[in-house]
Design a protein that fits this description.
Layout lengths: L43 E10 L5 E8 L5 H5 L9 E8 L5 E7 L4 E3 L3 E4 L2 E5 L4 E8 L6 E10 L7 E2 L6 E18 L1 E15 L3 H4 E10 L4 E9 L4 E8 L5 E3 L4 E5 L8 E5 L4 E9 L3 E10 L2 E11 H4 L2 H10 L2 E2 L1
Length: 335
Amino acid sequence: MAVPGGRRDAPGGGGADGGAVGHPGSARTRPGPRFDLNVGPQGYAWWYVDALSDDGTHGLTIIAFIGSVFSPYYWARGRRDPLDHVALNVAVYRPGGNRWAMTERGRGGLQRDADALTIGPSAMHWDGDALVVDFTEVCAPIPRKLRGTARITPDCLNTQAFPLDLAGRHVWQPVAPRARIEVTLSEPALNWSGTAYVDTNTGTEPLEAGFADWQWSRAHLKADTAVFYEGVRRDRSTFALALRFDEQGRAETVEMPRPAPLPRTGWRVNRSSRADDGIAQVVRTWEDSPFYARSTVAARLFGEDTMAVHESLSLDSFRHPLVKAMLPFRMPRRS
């Protein structure tokens, strides 16, 4: 990880000492998400949305997968055909009880072009101004319906991608670092508005082949958006990106704030964040699983009090046979 207070390299420099690695991927001429990315054997692509209600009481994540990285079925079949392992994960976090759904589907449930992606009964599309997600899913292991629409309107768009490893096998692109969201749910009945974030990750090898763990967070400042992405690769080298996106979505590499330790989750997943003074507080743990956690974290960043969405991922835990045996109970497959 980067040494606190050490020099930060501009995007494209650095390496295992914590700087950004390799060189940014090619900037796309058309802003917004693209759903026609090439995904080959062993590979993956996902499109990620997170959101918080303006009053801070509700949260939402939506992740569309091709070559579902956490799929026990994709793993068991040698990851030969990513298009036969697709899923839409929807998680609704609310005071009255969370709902979480992720059903894997085969090739017959997938349709896509540059602007639209359909997975089974759910779909997301980019209309030129907003990302619209219509979902009809069923939770597991307790079957409850999860149905609604989310409209994510970016405040800014970014077209630059960043490799996370020296060979460029894993690439991350923050598509909309800052956005507004309108959430309309029919099951459960719930409507709210709030702030949101959208990104894309792609890879040409399994996620656990490239990484042991990572910590990721995004925080909306008064004008800019701060994103921190750091972790340990499978070869034990480290990576660390500290970026600020301005109101036009342009990325600036900045010095990483001080490490801010966080308590482990109930499943003993390690968590850590960043803060000006090295102090951060978990406000709420939204998701606590055997290998990842999603939380809201309060911290002071770049002189401002912020509420960050934070993710911790342990791919060493994910590789454990017992964890893989548990996954089908939360991630059923419908061919």
